[in-house]
């Protein structure tokens, strides 16, 4: 299977802090790669570094065979990477419709077809089409954030903690949507909820103190009680 | 939605008609001049709203573009024939100069975080002020100079109509600009610049264009202002002009376009009446203190500005929870 994203020994500094100290992993085309680890391990910074929001000071990121390490964020996004941040990043003063339109790189038939598809995944968004993004509930914001990333024909989606702070019933909906998205795009998912991550993940990368400490097939991790206990505090 | 838009347009059309008829039925020279000033400052405040209200950029140097327009028009009308042709040419030259300067300043400074940008614009604006003070052969320094306006503007009513037409045209153009996909990206930048970048937008490119548009419109306001006074001096480049634009935008309502027009009206009228009261009541000789109180009250009772608060309370609430009809999803 083709490697779509290759992260090779990246180091990232934020101010004086050395946050990432050697993260390496690969995301293969058509798979869901899950980044696991405790709070503050460096999962979110890894996604931000891939997007160029907190540029790497060392190491390399390759996407679809091209080096993107030093590229500007908008160039990385235009290369085909969609990003759903942890804080959802909804534009509060724009309506749901305007949020979707801003996200569309091209307002063509294909984009509107994808919009219809994504509205099928998140019918709640249809109900609040003319409502300001800032007035949506946490779950609705999460849905809108994912819908915005999916409305473009992104080759890769980076999704950061989609279940964070959401009610179980909403988490279930979000998970169903990610499972649907998985059929047509490659996903790198950051998730604290191991049960959820293990349901949709194909491969995993364990991050601890800014370093990759383990990687492999999700099926192997599900059976490995020792690693789960040591790095995730479960099992 | 369409209905709301039509009512909005009808309301604005009525106001424009009333303002157009006003000088024909009233022979008050004071009111004609006061309204002309309000129109000019409305144009300036709308240009500032593009920066502050739509893009989230705080500039302390907006007066430099106002001053550029004022000086370009004043110098050209003084050194060339004071004709309508030269007046129009001077407006175009002022706009081109403002576009060029705002483009380079934007390109150099808009990469910075907002507070650094604000300080740098203050510094660059200060440089232009010093230049105007020292380049006496052209600007006559702080003393400034008078010049002749085109014959056509001898009648104050004519100039009133010209400024009203400019205000309406600028409003319509800027409304189209902010309601376009480009305008939506500006709002997105204001809301969350990092997120806008990660959606694939080169935000610097958008911010520079917003800065050029704001500079060009401010230059037009400056040209009109100079002709309204038939005089120009370095006061057009001072921080006071920028602060006026900032206050008009904040008090009227940021990110609304109509707000800055209302703000300009409120501030110009308040200045006129409070300073006028000093003739009868000595306490109003310190009218600037009362003016400060008006600002404080406005910010307390209208935190989103007059228009922003009115919209929030009486207008948006009705649309917030309106579910989408099937036909509206494309």
Features:
heterodimer; A: 235 residues; alpha/beta; Rossmann fold; six-stranded mixed beta sheet; four-stranded antiparallel beta sheet; 10 helices; 38% helix; B: 330 residues; mainly alpha; two-stranded antiparallel ribbon; 76% helix
Task: Provide an overview of this structure.
- The complex is a heterodimer of chains A (235) and B (330).
- Chain A is of the alpha/beta class and 235 residues long.
- Helices cover 38% and strands 27% of the residues of chain A.
- Chain A is built from ten helices and ten strands.
- Chain A has helices at residues 43-51, 73-78, 96-103, 109-121, 123-127, 138-150, 168-182, 194-200, 218-223, 225-232, and strands at 3-14, 17-28, 32-36, 58-63, 66-67, 81-84, 156-160, 186-190, 203-208, 211-217.
- In chain A, the strands form two sheets. A six-stranded mixed β-sheet of chain A has the order 6-7-8-3-9-10, with helices on both faces. Chain A has a four-stranded antiparallel β-sheet with strand order 2-1-4-5, covered by helices on one side.
- In chain A, 43% of the residues are buried.
- Classes of the chains: A alpha/beta (235), B mainly alpha (330).
- Chains A and B meet through helix 2, helix 3 and helix 4 of A and helix 8, helix 9 and helix 14 of B.
Structure in a nutshell:
Chain A is built from 10 helices and 10 strands. In chain A, β9 and β10 form a beta hairpin. In chain A, α6 packs parallel to α7.
């Amino acid at each position: 299977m083709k490697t779509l994203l290759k992260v090779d020994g990246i180091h990232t500094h934020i101010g004086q802090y050395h946050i990432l100290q050697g993260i390496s992993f690969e995301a293969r085309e058509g798979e869901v790669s899950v980044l696991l680890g405790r709070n503050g391990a460096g999962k979110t910074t890894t996604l931000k570094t891939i997007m160029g929001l907190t540029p790497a000071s060392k190491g390399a990121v390759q996407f679809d065979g091209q080096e993107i390490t030093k590229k500007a964020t908008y160039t990385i996004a235009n290369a085909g990477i969609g990003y759903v941040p942890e804080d959802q990043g909804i534009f509060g003063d724009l309506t749901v419709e305007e949020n979707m339109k801003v996200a569309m790189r091209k307002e063509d038939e294909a984009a509107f077809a994808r919009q219809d598809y994504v509205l099928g995944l998140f019918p709640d968004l249809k109900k609040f089409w003319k409502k300001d993004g800032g007035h949506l509930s946490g779950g609705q914001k999460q849905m809108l954030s994912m819908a915005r990333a999916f409305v473009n024909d992104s080759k890769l989606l980076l999704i950061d903690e989609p279940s964070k702070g959401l009610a179980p019933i909403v988490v279930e909906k979000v998970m169903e949507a990610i499972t649907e998205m998985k059929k047509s795009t490659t996903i790198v998912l950051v998730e604290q909820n191991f049960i959820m991550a293990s349901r949709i993940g194909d491969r995993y990368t364990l991050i601890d103190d800014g370093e990759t400490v383990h990687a492999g097939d999700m099926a192997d991790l599900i059976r490995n009680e020792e690693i789960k206990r040591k790095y995730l505090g479960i099992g | 939605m369409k209905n709301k838009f039509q009512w909005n347009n009808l309301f604005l059309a009525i106001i424009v008609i009333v303002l157009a008829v006003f000088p024909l039925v009233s022979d008050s020279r004071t009111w004609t001049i006061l309204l002309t000033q309000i129109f000019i400052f409305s144009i300036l405040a709308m240009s500032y709203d593009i920066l502050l209200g739509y893009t989230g950029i705080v500039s302390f140097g907006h007066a430099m573009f106002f001053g550029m327009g004022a000086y370009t028009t004043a110098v050209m009308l003084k050194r060339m024939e004071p004709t309508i042709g030269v007046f129009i040419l001077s407006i175009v030259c002022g706009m081109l100069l403002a576009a060029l300067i705002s483009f380079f300043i934007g390109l150099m400074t808009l990469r910075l975080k907002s507070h650094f940008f604000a300080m740098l614009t203050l510094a660059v604006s200060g440089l232009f002020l010093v230049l105007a003070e020292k380049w006496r052969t052209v600007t006559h320094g702080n003393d400034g100079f008078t010049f002749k306006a085109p014959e056509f503007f001898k009648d104050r009513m004519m100039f009133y109509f010209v400024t009203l037409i400019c205000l309406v045209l600028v409003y319509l153009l800027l409304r189209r600009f902010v309601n376009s996909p480009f305008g939506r990206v500006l709002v997105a930048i204001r809301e969350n610049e990092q997120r806008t970048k990660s959606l694939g937008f080169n935000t610097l490119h958008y911010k520079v264009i917003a800065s050029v548009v704001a500079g060009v419109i401010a230059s037009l306001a400056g040209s009109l202002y100079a002709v309204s006074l038939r005089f120009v001096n370095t006061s057009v480049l001072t921080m006071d002009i920028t602060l006026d634009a900032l206050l008009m935008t904040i008090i009227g309502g940021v990110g609304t376009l109509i707000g800055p027009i209302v703000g300009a009206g409120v501030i110009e009228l308040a200045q006129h009446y409070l300073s006028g009261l000093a003739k009868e009541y000595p306490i109003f000789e310190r009218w600037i203190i009362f003016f400060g109180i008006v600002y404080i009250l406005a910010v307390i009772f209208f935190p989103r500005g007059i228009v922003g608060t009115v919209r929030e309370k009486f207008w948006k609430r009705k649309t917030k929870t309106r579910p989408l009809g099937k036909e509206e999803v494309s």
